[in-house]
């Protein structure tokens, strides 16, 4: 593989042994796999730390503008392989571990996934951090150090069961606790006016303590910091009197309360929980981050008016929206800047990314909760709203409404740039949720289509394909992904095509072995691997996919002697614990898979498998082995999608709707290399207005009618025939997500997929073209867009 490593295998081995003894306190004879993994991680961390210090020094020397990415979620996954790959030390580490008698892949896989996020929004933040480091932008990510990340998913009788995630119960090699960087934050209390200034006196306090994880960029040329906040009790929360009186539990209650804030990640994706604790989490990490940002700024600059020139704070969705009023509060209440100037300075520094148009996901807080937790902020928000009304007397939108605070509107008004995450999504922002604000601020909304880092989503997860690319066009593609287009002339070269095909087959064979070993299901590696992996949500329409599988199963049963294209349908994804409909879809897929996989008539053609506990590492395993990528959301609902990009990059063909970044993927790879189906966003709106749209679709398609009937009549749940009647009723009734109305076209497109797959040479050519034409979807390109249009910041390498 790529080999320009600064260390070599012998040095690496010495470093591992050194850390095994002096950091882990073990000798080689008694070390466990975890000890070895930690020793290797420390050896890698040493290398990262040197580069990290150098980058930090450079940022200080340059007094450069810094980018601060505030995000409630960072779905970083495992870091060891990331570090090894970016430092180009993977080969040496592999050699060193092998020489020590260890299995390198087992040591690397021993690391728990850091699952500090739910899905796309959190994974995007992780890709962005890596790209910021790769490009050498002085930047910090700020978030919460959740003790429990996203829950673990298990299946019991096909049902999702959640158990707590415990990544921090194992030693974590990557973070440095920063005792000196801790801030005291308040909640509640009252506001008084002293000498004309508002003074907020909270009646509850917690400490935010910083933990830093270095994030190394490609080739180790730059490293930035991911700073995560952990909540700790402020002094005095341990009650010694109560303890001495024997009330041991009561004595520690305030402490437990304080620690609650960073205890768990909210397991909701795109829904708003309305919990006091959630608002506390949001204020907690945002306020701690802003204090840290202001401290750094004031160390370097005496003049507050420089703030927008030196500080770019990006709000990843509305979760950190309180940053607007908090920054105004710091500048105005604490530093005496006039209110309007404070607002201008804050706006100059803030940018806001919107990630969804789902109405339930645009956060709104009740005035009551707000008033109780953040009384001064509520006053400031009212003043911001008044100032906005004064500047735009004809405005028809407000931040405050009786009883509520609207965080989307607040973020919009307090940011100098607001961006969507795909062209379609940004367009819809302008015509739907932010129509009025866009009219008042026509230059504010810009688009930044999402991207993914090719280091993790190709080099690390698909090393064989990465190597083929590098032998073909050199390794420049790793920092300039659009150079993948240089592969195009090779796609028609039979020998090259054979290599590409062999790699896909080997990836599939490896996955098939793993599925057999871990999940006891035999799948034919020559079959088409048809993959839908993402959070469970009605708009993502996993139920459309399983209905099509059921209809196909029925059709194969009718005509078992026909020459069917063998398929393995693979699902993975978690449902929010309180989202019962989504959980029932999981159960339906599991129940249906049992019946379908056990059917001796059909199971050489069709298998269905739902893999539990979807996470970053599972995605890394599945994506390189996929033939078909399912991106089948109801048009207008998926803001962008980023899994869709990872699949295309790794040579899977997409079956998809014109939704989110699918639109741009299809443009890039060419419509002839993409299986399009379904209504457009406009057609979706029109269709919803037709009375009985689902019934009409069902009446027109006997296959759909029969598949729904099987769901309804208990074919897949014989012991409880009515188990899925509500799902059948839903898709045959209101069918808000238009499963029935899109079914026939989906079926048509799937049969086109079958036909295309039978011509393996043709299919692999299309797959290779997907790889060659996915270069635009690098998160490096996205970050350059933000640097240009939103942050106006520079790179230092
Ligand atoms: C998600 C969207 C995805 C998008 C990611 C990253 C939220 C709120 N939104 O379509 O659903 O790819 O954000 O932008 O999680």
List the SSEs and their pairings.
Elements: H1 9-22, H2 33-62, E1 66-70, E2 74-77, H3 80-86, H4 90-99, H5 104-109, E3 114-116, H6 120-135, E4 139-144, E5 152-156, E6 159-163, E7 176-187, E8 190-194, E9 197-201, E10 204-216, E11 223-233, H7 240-244, H8 248-260, H9 276-300, H10 307-310, E12 311-316, H11 323-334, H12 339-349, E13 350-353, E14 364-366, H13 367-373, H14 375-391, E15 400-401, E16 404-406, H15 407-414, E17 417-420, H16 423-431, H17 435-440, E18 445-447, H18 454-460, H19 463-473, H20 488-491, H21 494-519, E19 528-533, H22 542-558, E20 567-572, H23 580-597, E21 606-611, H24 616-622, E22 628-631, H25 643-649, E23 653-656, H26 662-669, E24 675-676, H27 681-688, H28 693-700, H29 702-713, H30 725-732, H31 739-758, H32 760-772, H33 779-791
Parallel strand pairs: 1-4, 1-12, 4-11, 12-13, 13-17, 17-18, 19-20, 19-22, 20-21, 22-23, 23-24
Antiparallel strand pairs: 2-3, 5-6, 7-10, 8-9, 10-11, 14-16, 15-16
Bound molecules: N-acetyl-beta-D-glucopyranosylamine.
Residues 119-121, 124, 269-270, 317, 355-356, 361, 421, 450, 638-642, 660 line the site of N-acetyl-beta-D-glucopyranosylamine.
Structure description:
The protein is of the alpha/beta class. It is built from 33 helices and 24 strands. Strands 7-10-11-4-1-12-13-17-18 form a nine-stranded mixed sheet, with helices on both faces. A six-stranded parallel sheet has the order 21-20-19-22-23-24, with helices on both faces. The chain starts with 8 loop residues before the first helix and ends in a 6-residue tail after the last helix. Mean pLDDT is 96; it is low at 1-6. N-acetyl-beta-D-glucopyranosylamine binds at residues 119-121, 124, 269-270, 317, 355-356, 361, 421, 450, 638-642, 660.
